Amino acid sequence: MNENKLVLKSINDLLGSKFYIPSYQRGYRWKNQQVEDLLKDLWEFKTNPPKQDDGKEKPFYCLQPVVIKPTENDNWEVIDGQQRLTTILIILNYFNQTEFKTPKQVFDIKFETRTDSKEFLDNINDEALASKNIDYFHINNAYKVISNWFDEKEKTNSAAKNEFYPVLVNDTKIIWYEVNDGSDTIDIFTRINMGKIPLTNAELIKALFLKNTNFKKVSPDKIRLKQLQIASEWDKIEYTLQENSFWYFISNNSRNFATRIEYIFDLMKGKKKEDEEYFTFYKFYEDFEKSKDTNENPDIDAIWLKIKKYFLTFEEWYKDRELYHLIGFLLTVNTDIIYLLEKSENKTKTEFKAFLIEEIKTKVQFQIEELDFYKSKAKARIKTILLLFNIQTIVLNENSNIRFPFDSYKTENWDIEHIRSQTDRKITGNARKDWSKDILEYFTGNKYVENKKVDLDVLEDEEKKLCTSLLKTITSDKIIDDDFDKLYSTIIEKFKEDKEPEKINSISNLALLDASTNRSYGNAVFPVKRKIIIENDMQGTFVPICTKNVFLKSYSKKLGEIMYWKNEDANDYLKAIKQTLSIYLPTQKVKDGKQ
């Protein structure tokens, strides 16, 4: 059985080739935007080409993969990528019809469902042919888009076409994936288009690793053994990376990798956000091609060992409880993981942990009492402090097996929320009904259900009177503003939140919460918030340990009234933050300005 082939080919390499589009594929359907995007990308590459490093191949623009299979008479059946190929051919034909007295060589495309497709592609301007079917209509439309695009370009650059053509033909390459293993083409097409064989950087790199030609001087049995070893280790790495607790420990990447090992490849090759999609594959491809120039086998073992070293280092960090938390924090606040990898080299574990502590100090160099929720940059700093407070609280409890859930933190959009509500913020609209339902549930112990009688007889007179007013608010078609304002004032006075403390927006009145809980209690009074937090914790919803401690009043030296959040509670909470983070924070000023 022949081996599948994976190479890079320039458009120039394709000239003279004959491609065949089978009937199981839909016809040409690229819209204006897709055609223009391709032209813009090529022009941008021409205008701002990547820097050419010494001794390196000239940079090129690379298109996405084209999956093809050889057929009789040196023709190629296109399994995937026909939209891109057809668009390239339309551009080439545009140049032949507008620029060259003697047409230059192109490649041919024939559609099984359109027997005269070659003739039409050679005469795209034929409006009569273009109106014959929907495929020709879209091809003709793409031609018009290309023509209009160059007309606009030539208004500011008369040499636009002359500059563009060599970039297209000589500096544009496709990833050529040639299927030679006897697989059924319809089955391959179906699997690709259902996402079962995603042609990601990772899958293409895997194909590079497993090529038989990498092992020229090795027996077939040993080749097969080495391929099985790499494939097996690859699967084990991917399996671990698919565990969200591991993945979100090492990655802040918002990109949804179909194959997560690709993240490691991106790190190895230094891929940046602005780099093109298949940047990482090109870099690995270059590594393998270098060995061909020296007539040597690629050092598969060395390349694969480097990949494993990245993974095994991450795994070691993950398994060590202290490293997990220190590194997890740094990565969450956007420290470069490659920077940490480099700093970990040639250091003992003790030395590396000491380095990490010093690195964390650089992230929290501010006076935490001066941070105000509504001041510029302060909110992000408060969030950093509260995150570190939760993490360090776990780290300091050496007998606990609890680990901070970076996966929850990064996927549930955690934010900071006031412990005691900002009662000066007016509640309006339907939010007043929601607020009233929360208070009613607090007094009665039951959720409000529409049209279900609420038993108020068990309540004391004061609470019964309040609940009657709350029910009136909930069931009214129109809420009278003055009535609600009086009810609101009465309730916040009952819960001793009528006098807002000076430091309501300071860190001593703020806690870390997941977005769903944050939304659920909005402007609720402290005891309602406390009830929601406790219920969430009982139901298995993760509540940050320090947030739970706050609402259980674990930091308060005097418990006193458990249902109120007083200035003394806030001060004790602030002291706990300072004490827990004392190893990281700079010397903190006290109220009178002394150290």
UniProtKB/TrEMBL annotation:
Transmembrane segments: none
Chain ranges of the GmrSD restriction endonucleases N-terminal domain: 12-210
Pfam families per record: GmrSD_N
CDD domains: ParB_N_Srx (cd16387)
PANTHER family, per the entry: DUF262 DOMAIN-CONTAINING PROTEIN (PTHR35149:SF2), SLL5132 PROTEIN (PTHR35149)
Protein name, per record: DUF262 domain-containing protein
Organism: Flavobacterium luteum
Highest classification ranks of the organism: Bacteria, Pseudomonadati, Bacteroidota, Flavobacteriia, Flavobacteriales
